[in-house]
Each structure stands twice: as C-alpha cells, then as structure tokens.
Model the fold of this input.
Amino acid sequence: MNIQDYKTVKNLLESPKKIVVVPHRNPDGDAIGACLAIQHYLLKKNHEVIVVSPNELPGFLTWMPSAKDILKFDKQNRQSKKAIQEAELIFLLDFNAINRVGDDMQNTLNDFKGIFLMIDHHPQPETIAEFTFSDVSYSATCEMVYDFIDKLGDKDLIDQTISTCIYTGIMTDTGNFRFPATTPGTHKIVANLMEKGADNAYIYNKVFDSNTYQNLQLLGHALSKLQVIPKLHTAFFALSKNDLKVFDYQKGDTEGIVNYGLSIKGVSLAAIFIEDEDQGIIKISFRSKGTFSVNDFARNYFNGGGHQNAAGARSTLSLEETIDKFVKLVNKYKNEISKSYDN
Ligand code: 5GP
Ligand code: MN
Done:
C-alpha cells in the first residue's frame, strides 16, 4: 500500500461500514490477534465488525478480548455466509493465498463483490485484494496491524484491548521474541503496547501456561517417539490418529512440539506429521534454521507453504508413505540442509 492507498482507505473508513475480518484456517495467535485488534480498532471507528474464522481456534486463544464472538465458518455456516455476503469490506489477515481458508469458505469469498484488504507477512502474496499490505520483513502480521493503524493516523486509538491482541500475535509469532525476524522496531512497538496496558506476564500465562495433564502426556509421548537422523541434520515426529485419541487431542495441543526437534544441537530441519482423521490428511509442520527454505520445500513437495524457516503443509498419502517421501527428499537435499546453519 502506498500513501495514496492509505488516503483512500482512510476515506473509506470515515463512514460506518459492514466489515468482516478473516484469519487463515487453523488460526494461530498472530492470525487471531490481528483479527481481534482490527475488530476492536474498527469498532472504535463506529463500524459493524464480525470476525469469521474458517474453523475453531485453539483453546489457548479463547481468553482473548471478544474471541468468544468469533463465527466459525464450518460450524456456523449460515450466519458466516450471511455476514460475508452483507459485508462491504473484508480484511484478510495473516495469509497470502485465498485457498488458506479452505474450500467452502474460499467459494463464498470468491463470490464477494466488495473490497478486500490484505495484511500479511508471508512471501509471494496472491494479488486478490484492492489493497495489499505485504511485507516479509515483519515478524508478525500483528506488527503490521500496529503500523497500519499508525499510518491511518489513529495510533491514539490503540488502547489496552487492542494492545493485548497485538502483543499476543507478536509474542507467539516471534517465539517469544527470539526468531530472527524480531527487530529493534518490533521491540519498540512492544514497548508502546506495554505502555498502553498490554500485560506481558498475564498474556504469556494465558497462552503458554494453560496446559492440561493430557497435553503434557502427549508431549512426552511425542518426545519419546522423536526420530533423529544426525547425518542429515534432521529430526521429526509422527503422531497417528491413535496417539491423538489416547491423549484426548484437542485443536492446538500439538502447537510448538516441532520446535523441540529443532532444539537439538546439530539439527537444522525439523518436521511433525499429524494424522488428521477428520480431513483425511496428514498435517505437516516444517521448521528450519538458516538458509534451507521450508517454504519452498513445502510448496514444491507437500502442497503447502509459509515462511523461509516455518511452513505448513499437507499430504494425502498415508502416515508411513508421507514419512518415506520426506526421508527420501531429505536425502536428496542433504547438502542444502547441512550447509543451512552452523550449529
Ligand atoms: P504451521 O506449521 O504452524 O501450521 O505453519 C507455519 C507457517 O506456515 C505459518 O506462518 C502458517 O501460516 C504457514 N502455513 C501453514 N500451512 C500452510 C499452507 O498450507 N500454505 C501456506 N502458503 N502457508 C502455510
Ligand atoms: Mn503470522
């Protein structure tokens, strides 16, 4: 978005509008944080705002301001479709391709005749929106939302509620401010958010200290099954539908497990394969350190994508076949992976 675009958007937001805000499917802290921050900002500007998520959010985000009012497109289908059809403006937050919302919702969005505005930090965005604020140098979409509000001249409207939402997104997407995309600019914004009332200890506690006994048992089980291939600098987990059943899996319970693979000295590529019985697929998360792009790897071989060092994907093969395919590919890219990071 250029200066003229900001002027146009500012004018657009001068009069009350019906607005829908959309995160990607299986939304994370950044996607939900961005949606709720934008919602609370627009409510202050007298718009009618509804957040429509493609599906359920993980339990560790349900405490967020107004999270309980989020419509789930899969479960509240009629209400969600109605909100989208009646909207004049739709925000697409934390995703770069319309298929990230899933098939059914994608069709409804494709029929939408109003204005799309996309804010996102993933590479290679689709050009589907009238207004696209895309920049891969940002640590989180939430950091972009802060700048977006600032550029519209409304920084003063950022209150404790909006700060809490933005802080949550930045905290989760930066891995608690440790990933390389975390910049001095990120910390300056975080400082401002704390001054506006975002409570860092409270937010951390809500997001990360909300485990159940079963969650930790599932983590322990996953760790006990971790496979490491030292000569390929690779570690991976596999969780079958049976594993998930035994530990009473709920959405979000496997979040972050993949990072334990990457925490092993010498490992530059980690993956987790999770058998998703409902969707009939294997859901995959890839993480890397350094130059090996899991965005390219996921795009080229597993129908996915994401960032250079964090990507998601899916496979319609069986769990065993998916892992076989992965191990063969890792052998093929042995040199790229071993050069990726000096660890
Ligand atoms: P996760 O492994 O946590 O699901 O996703 C890691 C990153 O990749 C996140 O930024 C997420 O938005 C992105 N991502 C996950 N799945 C996909 C996918 O299927 N396609 C694309 N383009 N990005 C994805
Ligand atoms: Mn993000």
Summary: The CA atoms of residues 179 and 211 lie 23 Å apart. The pocket of manganese (II) ion (ligand 2) is lined by residues 30, 94, 121, 140-141, 173 (CB under 6 Å). The mean pLDDT is 97. The two ends are 39 Å apart (CA to CA).
